[in-house]
Each structure stands twice: as structure tokens, then as C-alpha cells.
Amino acid sequence: MIRFEDVTKVYDTTSRPALNGVTTEIERGEFVFLVGPSGSGKSTFIRLVQREEKASTGTVYVSGRDVARLSSWRVPHLRRDLGVVFQDFRLLPNKNVFSNVAFAMQVLGKRRGLINQAVPEVLETVGLQDKARRFPHELSGGEQQRVAIARAAVNKPAILLADEPTGNLDPDTSWGIMEVLDTIHQNGTTVVMATHDHEIVNTMRRRVVELEAGKILRDEPEAGYQPADNTAKLQSRLRKSEVR
Ligand SMILES: Nc1ncnc2c1ncn2[C@@H]1O[C@H](COP(=O)(O)OP(=O)(O)OP(=O)(O)O)[C@@H](O)[C@H]1O
What we know:
The chain is of the alpha/beta class. It has 8 helices and 10 strands. Adenosine-5'-triphosphate binds at residues 11-12, 18, 36, 38-44.
């Protein structure tokens, strides 16, 4: 479904590569957590799958196609296979919930009858069937993220990419979002989620691909994640400076 063959991405020749010789494969129907410290390359991985960016060297295949070799008129075809969710929701502020989701179908030229059927269905999947007429500013952060997931899922993409989808949400709300992603996964969508949230990773126990400085440090099935504890390091440093 997604294959990286010795992929390196250099944004800026004066700094180290964002991804450095990454080889991995994600099969249809998997749920994969992409973890690692800030700057380790998680968002870059996702951008390369979407062809938001191109690899500097190596090859990225999505649904069997080398994405770098797609002609520009074929990129929209690739993106139809992908739903994407971000940390900051990215909803259209002057459209209500229904219209935000419907918009994703309208841009693909879907018929109104189909839209009127599919949008309520997906809003039910994310638990927002009663809020179709609300505007984004009338929703909580968790509800806004549910709308963003509904929008990403309404065209039934083969792959859902989620870049820190719970990054702006409190723990309870985050669990609600994970339930929705889990349902979408169980309906057959391959899910790749970049996250810092070790509680979610440790509880869900899915495949974990851990990046560090652009390289794969670890790739394990049904795994957990123990990030380097920067809080503890910071506290210890502060205590030492108090003693002095
Ligand atoms: N558009 C860009 N131009 C230049 N450098 C970039 C760009 N995007 C990312 N980088 C650099 O590439 C490296 C990897 O960044 P990336 O955003 O992929 O990491 P990340 O793991 O997603 O981080 P975070 O968890 O903070 O979102 C970092 O050193 C970053 O500064």
C-alpha cells in the first residue's frame, strides 16, 4: 500500500536530512503509529506519501505507483486515495459541518444525491449527526477534529494519514478521536498516525515505526513507546541550579 525504498529527503543542503535512507512497507489494512521526537521526520514521511514533497533520493510507492513519476494531472488521482487529518483541524470557518464535509465530495464532482447520502452517514460514524448545521466556531476542539476526520473519510480513501491528530486535545477528547480512527480502520482503511502521545500508543498496541533524526530506529508489531523524558531532565537541571 505504501512503500519507501531507501528514501532520503533533504530540504536544505546546509542541514542534516529530514529523512535519511528510510526503507519500510505498510500493507493494506494496517494501523501504524509513526513516533519519534520533534524533528525526527514524521511529518516529512506523511508529506512524501501525499506528494506534498518529493524524495531527494529513493522511491516512494503508494498503491503500487511511484509517486515522484506521476504527471501533475495524476496527482489529484493519488490524493483521492488519501484522506489527511492535521493537528490544527483546518476547517473552512464560514461553512457549517455538513458543508465542510460535503466540500470534499464536491471538489471531486460527486452528484448531489450521493453527497446527501454519504455526509450524514460519515457524520454518524464520527458521532456528529446532530451537529450538521453548526459552524466550526460553535464546536469544541474534539468536535472540530471529528469534522476533519469525517471530511478525510467521506470519499472512502484507501489510506488515512493523521499528523498528530490529538496534539491539540486533552486526554479524554483524544480517546474519543482514537475510537473514531479505530472505527475507520475497522471499516477497511489503512491508517498511518504520527504522534507524540505515548499513552495512546502504549494502550492501543499497534505497529510502531520509531524515527530518530530521520532514520528508522525501531519497527515492531503491537508495540509501545517510551519517549525520552525531557521533563525529568529539565526538572533535574533546575534542581541543580537551585543548589548552586
Ligand atoms: N519545509 C521545510 N524546510 C526546511 N526544513 C524542514 C521543512 N520541514 C521540515 N524541516 C526539517 O526537517 C526535519 C524533520 O521535520 P519534520 O517536521 O518531518 O519532523 P517531525 O518529526 O514531524 O517533528 P514534529 O514532531 O515537531 O512535528 C526537521 O529538522 C525540520 O526542521
